[in-house]
Structure formats: C-alpha cells, structure tokens
Amino acid sequence: MTPPGGLTPGPPAIARLSFNQITAERASLAEAVDACARHGVPYIAVWRNKLAETGLDRAVRLVRDAGLRVSSVCRGGMFPAASPAEREARIEDNRRAVDEAAALGAEVLVLVCGAAPDRDIAAARRMVADGIAQLAPYAAERRVRLGIEPMHPAFAAERSCITTLAEGRCLAQRFDPATVGVVADVYHIWWDPDLYEELARAAGRLIGFHVSDWLVPAQEVLMNRGMMGDGVIELRRIRGAIERAGYVGPIEVEIFNEVVWNTPLDTLMPRVKERYLSCV
Amino acid sequence: MTPPGGLTPGPPAIARLSFNQITAERASLAEAVDACARHGVPYIAVWRNKLAETGLDRAVRLVRDAGLRVSSVCRGGMFPAASPAEREARIEDNRRAVDEAAALGAEVLVLVCGAAPDRDIAAARRMVADGIAQLAPYAAERRVRLGIEPMHPAFAAERSCITTLAEGRCLAQRFDPATVGVVADVYHIWWDPDLYEELARAAGRLIGFHVSDWLVPAQEVLMNRGMMGDGVIELRRIRGAIERAGYVGPIEVEIFNEVVWNTPLDTLMPRVKERYLSCV
Q1: Distance CA A248, CA A4 (A)
Q2: Interface residues on B facing A, Cβ-Cβ cutoff 8 A
C-alpha cells in the first residue's frame, strides 16, 4: 500500500538549504551569515529584530558579500488590533517589512498573521484578510511575496488566528498568486488529518517550506521544536508531498530550542546539514 | 450581522451542570461526591484512577447515596500501540472501563484515543478505528456510549491522534449513533476555523460537552486550562451552537490547573457554579 502522501523522495539538494537565523538566536546577523558562508549553506532567513540591530544597509552588504540569498524575512503580519489606529500602525510596520525584504532581495515576507485582541477570533480573521488586502498592492509593486504561515493551534490566542493549511490556502486564494502564497512549516501542520490532501490543494500557492521537529514529551509549546530527526514528524514524506505540489524552493531550518541555541555555530551547522540530508 | 454560530442563548440550567472530578484533582472521589451533593451540582464525571483508589462497589454506593448522576467516565481509548499483543491489552482495559461506566450508570465513556507509538500518525489513526470497532459491540451490549473526544493538536504526539471535530465525527459515523458519538471540549476545539460548521454537522452525534477556558499567555499546554471566563474562549456562543445541534445533556466543568486544584472545595464549587451561569 502506498503511504499517505505517496512514495518518499531521496535526500534534498544542499542547494535548497536555508538557515533560518532564529536557529542561532544568540548570534548576530553577521555571525550567522559568516557561518552559512563557511559551511556552504546557500540561503539564510533573516529576522527583523536582528536586522534592526545590524542596520539594513549593512545587512544587505553582509549577505551580498557572503554570496548568500535570502529565502525569507521574518516577519510581517500581526494585523488584528483593538482600534483602527492601531491596525493602521500595524499595516505601516508591514510596509517597512516589505521594504526590508525588497532591499535584501528576499523571496518571501513571512506573515505571522496575529491573534484576536479579545475573544472574537472570527473578527480577528476578518482583520487579517483586510490587512493582507491593504498590504498586497504595496508588496506587489516591490516584488515581495507575502507568505501566510498557518500556525499551530496552540498559538491561536497569541500569535496567529490562521491555524490550518486549509484556512491559509483559502485566504491566499483571495489574492494574486504572484503576490500572496502559503508557507508550510512542519511544526505547525504535521498533526493535520487533511495534511496530504491540503498540500496537494495548495499547489501553486506554496512559497515556503520550514523544517524542524516536534519533540516528545512536549514542554512549553513555543520552545518544543527540535532538530530534524529528534521528534515525531514524518519530514521526508511531507517534503515529498510538497514537491509533488510543485514547491522546489528553499527549505528553511527554523528551530526554537534552548539546547540548539546554546550550541556553538561550528558544531551546529554540520549537524543541521547532516540532519537535513538524512531526515528531510 | 449575526455572529458565527448564530445568536447566543441565556444562562444554562443548573440541572445540566457536571463537575468533572479532575477539577478537584487533590480530592478523593468521596470528597468530590460530597462537595457536589452539598453544593447542588447534579452530575459528576468520574476518573478511573480515582475509581481504582475508591473501589467500584463503594463508588457506585457513594454516587447513588448522594443522589448524583454520572455524566461520564474518564477515560477509555489509548488504542495505538507497537505490537498486536499490546493493542489487545488496551482493548481489554477498555472493556473494564465499559464495565465501570455501566456499573456507575454513566452516560458516556470518554475516549482519549491515543497517539502513534512511532512517527506514523496515519497508522495510529487506523489503530484507533480498529480499536473502536472491537470495543463497540461490548459497549452496545452494556448500553454504554463511547464518546470520541477530539483533542487539541498540541496533544497529537502524546494523547490523541484524533485532533479535530471533523475527524472525530467522520470516525464516529462509521458506527451506530446509539453507541459511538463525539465529545466536544471547548479547550480542544475553540480555535478551529470550521468550528460552527462542524458543530452543526455533528448533530445527532454529540454526546458530551466539556467547558473550561484557554488562558493567555499559555504556559505548559496540559495545565493551561482556566476557570470559565478567565480566558479567550467564546463559551456561550459555542454552547448555543451545540444546543442548536441538538445536544442538551450534561455540561462538564473540566479544569486542569494548579491554582484551581489548590482551591478548597467549598470555595471552588460556588465559583464553578457562578462562572457556569455567567459565562457558559
């Protein structure tokens, strides 16, 4: 019997590997860029807090001089807010995120869409749709794609009211596929009973793929991500489904984990590459 | 505009209130039964570990002498296991749980379905379906209904591979509705983008309703439940949808929370009743 999602592929190409800099949360952007360059990792994903520390112009030079490409900027989004003025301020901040992504030549601005400011999750979902509608023309002009990242339902009250691939896809489908797509992060979606059907339905809309693992037993849910292979996620089977849906772009390794964060970069990078090749 | 789920109802009847004894985790069954009786709570939900401490015959007498009814026994399930022998042992344990529910006159045996023993969540889902198929005739003979409780996806790796109302309903629909239904617990389902549509689709299959709240910020996900009204869940709106789907049975208050567990029962019970009336 063919497993759900079909047959699994061989190892992914190193040419697609991206190091999401949250995986080295203690390092500066300069240190993360340097580690990628020395260890032959072709892509990096850049966080805005690190960008602010470094300065945009210097960040652009660092990345360019190292010969890296930027798979994504993390993160825009956070659209829902209690007042119209606050929502407008969030849009304005998202425009700055688009500018930063454009300056870095990033393929995608990842959207962590935001949670309700109150108990009304349906209203928050409408604010997300409205926010993306306001932002999309600005992003399109600057040739930055907006990647809706459905987040694990454990984050629904604090980070994103967009909780499933189906919901992210339906939201993306209201917009031009050249501008708005979906980012699939295994940590957020692995449990979904419709996972493989939904990945197939997302064909043409997938613009990012993030990998880590779900550790058992789970402790605090934000920091429960592990190195690929250390948890329960069927990474290679999921990658197979994502490739059959047409996504062959960068694969970001994005791990929130204190042990990983405390590992020296020259120990961490070879492990990331090894696990990427053996598990993803 | 009518909110999702339609208009909200008034307060629920006290006649439907059930105290799930995990809400008083430090108390014995005798103490929890006594507190329910003194505070005019008509139903109790009984946990099997407490039942084992008390002894089944004594438990039956305690509940009957207090004039209480048992809304459910927690819990059966945990069907997936690595070997056929272990899976058979789980079924056998589930038969004992059915016996206990029957002895207590419980309306429902709650099924926490179990997680994969490995990385294969699809196989675990098949083991759950097989397990229920094996258990259902035994339950039907003893007039105990099996309540599939979809659990929050944060528990998918450790407690239940059945993670959404849709998945629980589709699974239940393979069986006679007189024997197998779905238990809706707000903590597990509140985030679902299809929540109101799915509650409507579950009409005729809903056989339990559990309430608590989702606290913000979330800490450890098992213990993140709060007293109704202390979190972000739209409890009354959800109750309205559940009643429109035809469920008018007991409403269990089920709270895993250290602060609640450390509250003396004579302080806790009036608070449970007050919040039930004002928030559910």
Answers
A1: 20
A2: 3-4, 116, 118-122, 125, 152-154, 156-158, 161-164, 166-167, 190-193, 214, 216-221, 231-234
A211 CB-near residues (< 8 Å, 6+ apart) = A185, A186, A228, A235, A239, A251, A252, A253, A254, A276, A280
CB contact under 8 A, B191 and A220: no
Asked if B148 contacts B110 with a C-beta cutoff of 8 angstroms, the reply is no
User: What residues of chain A lie within 8 A of the CB of B3, using their CB?
Assistant: 122
Domain of residue A176 covers: 14-279
- Chain B hits for A233, CB-CB cut-off 8 Å, are 119
CATH number, residue B72: 3.20.20.150
For chain B, the domain total comes to 1
Verdict on whether the full-model pTM lies above 0.80: yes
**Dihedral over Cα of B144, B145, B146, B152: its sign:** negative
Contacts of A265 (CB under 8 A, 6+ apart): A24, A27, A31, A32, A35
A196, burial (CB in 10 Å: exposed 0-12, middle 13-18, buried 19+): buried
Which of B118, B188, B232, B239 is the best mutation test for A, with the most CBs of A within 10 A? Answer: B232
**B154 with B161: CB under 8 angstroms?**
no
CB contact under 8 A, B167 and A218: no
The ipTM assigned to this model is 0.94
Q: Is residue B6, in this structure, part of any structural domain at all?
A: no
Mapping DSSP to helix (H, G, I), strand (E, B) and coil, where does residue B200 land? helix
Q: Which residues does chain B have within 8 Å of residue A187's beta carbon, measured at their own beta carbons?
A: none
Tokens linked to B49: 């570990």
pLDDT in tens, chain A (280 residues): 445 556 789 999 999 999 999 999 999 999 999 999 999 999 999 999 999 999 999 999 999 999 999 999 999 999 999 999 999 999 999 999 999 999 999 989 999 999 999 999 999 999 999 999 999 999 999 999 999 999 999 999 999 999 999 999 999 999 999 999 999 999 999 999 999 999 999 999 999 999 999 999 987 888 899 999 999 999 999 999 999 999 999 999 999 999 999 999 999 999 999 999 999 9
**Does residue A3 lie in a domain region?**
no
Q: Is residue B139 part of a domain?
A: yes
Å between A221 CA and nearest CA of chain B: 7
Contact A116 B232 (CB under 8 A): yes
Q: Considering the domain boundaries, does residue A7 fall inside one?
A: no
Distance of CA A237 to the CA centre of its chain: 19
Residues B220, A219: C-beta atoms closer than 8 Å? yes
Q: A120 — phi, psi (to 5°)?
A: -95, 85
